[in-house]
Write a structure and sequence with these properties.
CATH class of the largest domain: Alpha Beta
Strand order of the largest sheet: 2-3-1-4-5-6-7-8-9
CATH superfamily of the largest domain: Mur-like, catalytic domain
Number of helices: 15
Strand content: 15-25%
Number of strands: 15
Helix content: 25-40%
Mean pLDDT: 93
Number of domains: 2
Shape: globular
Radius of gyration: 22 Å
CATH architecture of the largest domain: 3-Layer(aba) Sandwich
Structural class: alpha/beta
């Protein structure tokens, strides 16, 4: 009965949303890909808001229910019947009364299973598409015949573009480039491609990536002049920085309050999108002043005992872990007494799970001084790190015991972590949604008010 009701509500939402789009004809920018969609969507919306009156997807509303919620302009009603009535009432008002509807919708779209994006494309078609990353082993591959089928589905919104429409892809992503070339050969006249990334031929090219550092006197780039007696607490990691080159001209690009090289790709994709819509680089960069990295995506917080927490707990995949570990190695030793890495299960990898967890474990040695793993799959990470010679006294694993919720295991890991922390430690926490890694970060925050900056703090999520 519950499944039938959900199916009926989904069909009604789709029908109403389709009619709303047909009535108001907003420009639709779709953000797709396997990694970094929400950050990219937020950055794209910040840039395009300089030129257009727009609405963007809230949080990660990227499903056949989430996309209609954005089109209607409503929050998730969860299981509240009154909220659902209000949602449908709002949709009917939009359809039958005049409204000041946005000129543009910036929609994040995602697929958990085959056919998910086709359901969304039956509701709304894109006028522009931004593709983030299509990795060799993508998330949700467990439900597909293999990685290629996932990449094909994630790229499918681009195939729906009309001739001359903007397509923005990573110049570093060979899978996206190959799919774009293949589609062009099939269709002939097709989209106009704009690129971003570190590749030499990228339209919006990123150079000189580094961690944005400062001491208490505000000297950046790790340029601490003299006085080697400065203690660890005086040093700060402010975020990420790089140089963005557009048409041969360099611009400073900074992302405050978050760590990870990938933090720079979202704003670079947004700049490329702005260029595709006729904006100039300086205008697009002004829009980025309103951009903030979403919760759970590498955000930096002050932790207890004079530590620094890197909260990357929204989700996890092999490509994302590889990227954040590479970023962690960019932090100079004087800014991190120890690098403590806390990694949870990477879910929905199917037959690739064992090999990919082991591969991540082999990446850890040389980056982490201390490793803590959480979840039954993540034991493969700690086992591989130990096999590589990481000291056994520096590695801990917390499995999820029978009858125990993953969130309970996360709290046990947090309690242990708090015991072993030392002043000056930099702590990275990352794992898939199912192992609830945000429950490790929360009790380690130095300031209670920072809880509002964590992911999955809604009352409904807290019940799970």
């Amino acid at each position: 009965m519950r499944k039938l009701l959900k199916s009926m509500l989904t069909a009604l939402l789709a029908s109403l949303s389709r009619s709303i789009v047909r009535k108001y004809t907003p420009k639709v920018v779709m953000v797709t890909g396997s990694v970094g969609k929400t950050s990219t969507k937020d950055a794209v919306a910040a840039v395009l808001a300089e030129k257009f009156y727009l609405r963007k997807s809230e949080k990660s509303f990227n499903s056949e229910i989430g996309v209609p919620l954005t089109i209607i302009g409503s929050k998730n009603p969860w299981s509240n019947p009154l909220a659902w009535l209000s949602l449908f009432g709002k949709a009917l008002v939009l359809l039958f009364l005049p409204n000041d509807y946005p000129q543009m919708l910036v929609l994040e779209v995602g697929a958990d299973q085959p056919g998910d994006l086709q359901k969304i494309l039956r509701i709304v078609k894109p006028d522009a598409v931004v593709v983030t990353l299509l990795p060799s082993v993508p998330v949700h591959v467990e439900f597909y015949t293999g990685p290629e089928q996932v990449r094909e589905e994630e790229f499918s919104p681009a195939r729906a573009l009309q001739a001359g429409a903007p397509l923005i892809i990573s110049a570093d992503d060979s899978f996206a480039s190959d799919l774009a070339e293949k589609t062009k050969e099939e269709k002939g006249e097709w989209a106009t491609v704009t690129t971003y990334g570190t590749a030499e031929d990228a339209t919006a090219r990123i150079e000189d990536i580094s961690v944005w550092l400062a001491d208490m006197e505000g000297m950046v780039n790790g340029n601490v002049q003299g006085n080697e007696q400065r203690n660890q607490q005086e040093k700060q990691i402010l975020g990420m920085q790089a140089k963005l080159v557009v048409e041969g001209r360099p611009y400073p690009l900074t992302v405050p309050g978050a760590l990870g090289r990938s933090q720079l790709f979202a704003p670079a994709a947004a700049i490329a999108t702005g260029l595709a819509f006729g904006m100039i680089a300086s205008e697009a960069l002004e829009g980025l002043e309103e951009y903030t990295t979403p919760p759970g995506r590498g955000r930096v917080f002050e932790g207890k005992k004079g530590t620094l927490l890197i909260d990357d707990t929204y989700n996890s995949s092999p490509a994302a872990v590889e990227e954040i570990l590479a970023s962690l190695s960019l932090i100079p030793q004087e800014y991190a007494k120890r690098k403590v890495v806390v990694l949870g299960d990477m879910l929905e990898l199917g037959v690739y799970s064992e090999a990919e967890h082991a591969r991540v474990g082999h990446m850890v040695k040389g980056v982490a001084d201390v490793l803590i793993t959480l979840g039954n799959r993540a034991k493969g990470i700690s086992d591989a790190a130990l096999a590589d010679g990481m000291p056994v006294e520096k590695v801990w694993h917390f499995g999820v015991e029978e009858g125990e919720k993953p969130g309970d295991a996360a709290l046990k890991a947090a309690a242990h972590l708090e015991q072993i922390l030392e002043e000056g430690d930099v702590v990275l926490v990352k794992g898939s949604q199912g192992v609830r890694m945000e429950r490790i970060v929360r009790p380690l925050l130095a300031h209670y008010e920072d809880i509002s900056g964590l992911v999955r703090q809604d009352e409904e999520w807290q019940k799970r």
